Amino acid sequence: MSGKIDRRNFLKIMGLGGAGTALGGCDLPSTVTLEEGKEEVVSYLMPEEYVIPGVGVWYASTCTQCAAGCGIHGRVREGRVLKLEGNPGSSMNSGNICMMGQAGVQGHYNPDRIKTPMMREGGNLVAVSWEKAMNTIQEKLSAASGDQVAWFTGTLSGHQAALVNNHLEAIGAKKHYVHEPINTSVWQAVNKDMLGEAMPRLRIDKAQMILSFGADFLGTWVSPVHFAGEYAKFRKQKRRGLLVTIEPKMSLTGANSDLWIPAKPGSEGVIALGIANLLVKNHSKDMSALPADIQGLINKYDATTAANLAGVDPKRLQRIAELLVERSPSLVLAGAPVEGQAKGYASVAAVMLLNHLLGNVGQTIESQGNFPFAQLKTRTGGSSDLFAFVQAAKNKQLAAVFFYGSNPKFTAPAAIEMDSALSDVPFKVAISQFMDETTAVADVVLPAASYLEDWGTHVAAYQPEQPLIGVQQPLMEKLYADTKGFGDIMLDLLKVAKKDVYSAFADYYAYLKNAHAAMPANLKEAGMSDNDAWNAALQNGLIKVATGSKSMMVNPVSFADPAPAAADSKYGLHFVPSPRLGLWDGRHANLPWLQEAPDQITKVVWDSWAEIHPSTAQKLGIKHGSIINVESEHGTVKVQAIVIKSIHPDVIAIPMGQGHEEYGRYAKGRGANPLKLLNPIKEETTGELAIYATRVNASPTGKKEVVVRLGASDTQAGRRLVVTVPIEQYQRTEGV
Amino acid sequence: MAVNKQNHKSSSRLKVLLGKWHIRLAMIAVATALAVYPFVVVSSSSTSNEVIPPGGSHNGENVEQPIEFPHNIHVKDNGINCMYCHTYARRSKVAGIPPTSKCMGCHKVIATDKPRIQKLTEYWEKKSPPPWKKVHDVPDFVHFTHEKHLKRFVFDRDFPVENVKEVCAFCHGDVENMTVAHKVKPLNMGWCKTCHMNNGGPGDCWKCHK
Question: Out of A295, A510, A530, A580, which residue is the most buried by the measure of CB atoms under 10 Å away?
Fold first, then answer.
């Protein structure tokens, strides 16, 4: 249908439709959209045998909406992908996908896709041809020396990572900055030191009890879809698994726990040491093998000291210690609130030490084994590269930078001065599907194909079972002829940089097929030709990789005292920029389905908000729905207050994802970006950004608005929708 | 009416509880349910051989097609079954425009001197199917399926498949006497509903609006 529908026309059409319906069967001119000869109906030239118009065919591919690497099936009808579901054959997600995966089609069909290459001319980005864009890039690359060129990406793996690596090598550059605002970098660093590998396999299904220090494994942590499946097994064990969560603000995992304990961010390390103290003193766990300084720390923080520092009832810690001993094997996890502190490494190490004391290593924490293809391994990122990039840019060490899959201008705190660092880089190339903040300041913009139009391979950092390489194949033809897949762009660059090797490949498809043929024979079914094996890989959407088994080493390393930072006299509240399943770090803010999906805890839609505890709100004169200013040393944001009990009284939380200045019609100008407020505090051991270490003030502006959220009431109005029993009765019958 | 009277007797107690207006509403609901009941029973049980084809007519527009396809030559003169070309009708919601390869299967050798066939061959050679215009269209919020209609009117009542054009004609008219297809039935909701009522088709809203 063409033309605008205003109210008047809408009523007209409704009226006519009504008449048509009422008098149906009579010889009336048809109405509404019963068109004749308007739409084209084009047949196949030569159909594939299995194609029936009107009947969907499912193809396997790999989801790239986050870095977990879930296998997907896409329903394709008449050359259009219509629906995505999980690939049951993938151990990553066993046939399930999350809402971000479901919303993938909205990224693909998004009206704000970039459709042509663009170049900055006279201050503005104007459409140019691919030839001109690529020639300009090559000119700039040949003018710069190799070590002045860098790549800045999000998590990359598989052959895309290998090609970026090869490009850097071919032009004599070394710098590959990898940045993910939602990451587990500190946890990985601790694991590497303590267990010998960064991403051990977690057997949630085998644990009798999980103690999670802010690791939102059901929502935003590492591989949430996989963990949700394992969590169901954990709960269905003969003796139902027990989940205890200690975190500053309730996450999806917190909401599912049997016991949820709010704690000040930064105090988790001390709580863990307090529990360790109880385990040693009251439950005769052996700490003699630990380094002397750790023994000292355990002795220093007895349960009462630890509980007081954290603002938690000491009895809680005693109960947790008892439960941990009683329910073995258990699993203790550390998430972003523990990592995101100046003493993040020490805190995470203190938490992970509990696994060692409880004998969980080797039971619920297993080795992933060795992945045989080093080139294809994941380049996981954190935020330490933000600092490194800004430093290099300010020192004028960067002449040309390629950006892909990362939006540092949006995700970097204002205090890091990313904006001026970006303007210090004279030539910026952005490979992007959308005009995000970073792309908008680029000098050359290359329009990327969507992940449903592109080839690729993905090796997720977390591999739940036998490791696999996820195969990504296009589910349909490109919507816009002038866009290009990331692998094809890489090949174009490499055909110049390393002509002798890469000129043999017509396109990325040919490259991948060739790379697959070159893989060792034990990855393919015996007796299969290369072509059949390749087709099998496409059909399965994955390639299973054989690994040697490896046992976990345990090396309880020394760590500093994780004492929480002192109170700030000027800024009284701990600030939590909470990650959110849906908008993630802001990359999905342009997908209306995810904007519309209510937040799991507050149920707010389409906006930003600040969660604040009722007692704190009362003290500050803030009411539910008040518009408040949240102020840190480095900025102020204006958001609506949600007064809610599921947060520690000393904490205020604003979810990540909103506050875009660019990024298309659905995201632009909506809500506030909490990341901008952060103090540029570094984690002391790893150099990561300590994102939970900022302190803020909150003050009402005097304005108040209606809170737009689903199910606006917290009470059941006496309807007994969820039936409850008194705690005494529960303890009597369930024995907890 | 007997039931209504009984309701009336017991209504004095209800009256106290609910008030007069609600009673009336309840009575209307009961009466409506009684009125609809026999129809529901009949409609759900009738899948007999008796078929009442839909009536109605519609004076469709003359749709200009890239090639003036003569249905009459194919169906009437040469006796080709509808489902030979519209082969997906029995298997899918859409009947399908035949793939160009199917046209060329015959027209590589048949009638190659005719201008229409030469035009078709041009499309074939440049590997782009002719951009046919859709004549029979229902709005996007209507889920219509050929498969279920063929099952009901052809296969379930053992109607001879060689005469399938008579069933196709219910909705598409006398195609064997047309050149390019021409819309001769209204294909609007009331028209669909009448046929569903006459022939025991489903009456639920969501059967078509899903």
Answer: A580
- Within a domain: B126: no
Does B177 lie in the same domain as B77? Answer: yes
Cβ of residue B144 closer than 8 Å to a chain A Cβ: no
Structure tokens belonging to residue A260 = 């949820």
Contact: A24, B193; criterion CB under 8 Å: yes
pTM (two decimals):
0.84
In angstroms, what separates the C-alpha of A87 from chain B's closest C-alpha?
Answer: 25
Whose tokens are 């609809």? That residue is B36
Find, in chain A, the residue whose alpha carbon is nearest to that of B147. A54
CB of A36 within 8 Å of any CB in chain B?
Answer: yes
pLDDT tens-digit readout, A660-694: 999 999 999 999 999 999 999 999 999 999 999 99
How far is the C-alpha of A20 from the C-alpha of B142, rounded, in Å? 15
- Do B185 and B141 sit in the same domain of this protein? yes
If asked whether residues B136 and B185 sit together in one domain, one would say yes
Which phi and psi angles does A73 have, rounded to 5°?
A: -115, 135
Contacts of B181 in chain A (CB under 8 A): none
Angle in degrees, CA B98, B104, B107, rounded to 5: 120
Alpha-carbon distance values, A491 to A160, A485, B112 (Å): 10, 10, 46
Structural domains present in chain A: 118-178+373-467+480-506 (3.40.50.740), 185-366 (3.40.228.10), 573-704 (2.40.40.20)
pLDDT digits (tens, 9 = 90+) for B96-150: 899 999 999 999 999 999 999 999 999 999 999 999 999 998 888 899 999 999 9
Of A21, A26, A36, Cβ closest to residue B60: A36
Based on the domain organization, do B20 and B75 belong to the same domain?
A: no
Domain that includes residue B30, residue range: 2-45
Name, in order, each residue with C-beta under 8 angstroms of A651's C-beta and a sequence gap of 6 or more: A248, A249, A262, A264, A265, A573, A574, A575, A576, A613
Gyration radius (Cα) of chain B, Å:
25
How far does Cα A86 stand from its chain's mean position?
18
pLDDT of residue A5: 54
User: Which residue is associated with the tokens 């990592």?
Assistant: A339
**How far off is chain B from A55, nearest CA to CA, in Å?**
6
Range B163-183 average pLDDT: 91
Q: Which residues of A touch B192 (CB under 8 A)?
A: 24
Give the sign of the dihedral formed by CA A89, CA A93, CA A94, CA A97: negative
Q: Do strands A626-632 and A365-366 pair parallel, antiparallel, or not at all (unpaired)?
A: unpaired
Q: Helices (H), strands (E): how many in chain B? A: 10, 1
Closest partner residue to A21 among B131, B132, B189, by Cβ? B189
The shortest C-alpha distance from A613 to chain B (Å) reads 44
Q: Which residue of A has its CA nearest to B186?
A: A30
- A44 within 8 A of A66, measured Cβ to Cβ: no
The shortest CB-CB distance from B190 to any of A21, A46, A47 is to A21
Q: Do A515 and A491 touch, CB atoms closer than 8 A?
A: no
Say if residue B92 is in the same domain as residue B158.
yes
Residues B90 and B6 in one domain: no
The total number of structural domains in chain B stands at: 2
> Which residue in A322, A251, A245 sits closest to A283, CA to CA?
A322
Question: Is residue B33 assigned to a domain?
Answer: yes
Task: Give the residue carrying structure tokens 């299973």.
Answer: A544
Alpha-carbon distance values, A676 to A228, A634, B178 (Å)? 31, 8, 69
The ipTM value here is: 0.70
Which of B137, B141, B178, B208 is the best substitution to test chain A (most A C-beta atoms within 10 A)?
Answer: B137
Instruction: Identify whether residues B12 and B87 lie together within a single domain.
Output: no
| Preceding peptide of A265 cis, ω within 30° | no
Residue B114 domain-assigned (yes or no): no
**Domain check: are B41 and B75 in the same one?**
no
Kindly state the tokens that stand for A569: 């006299």
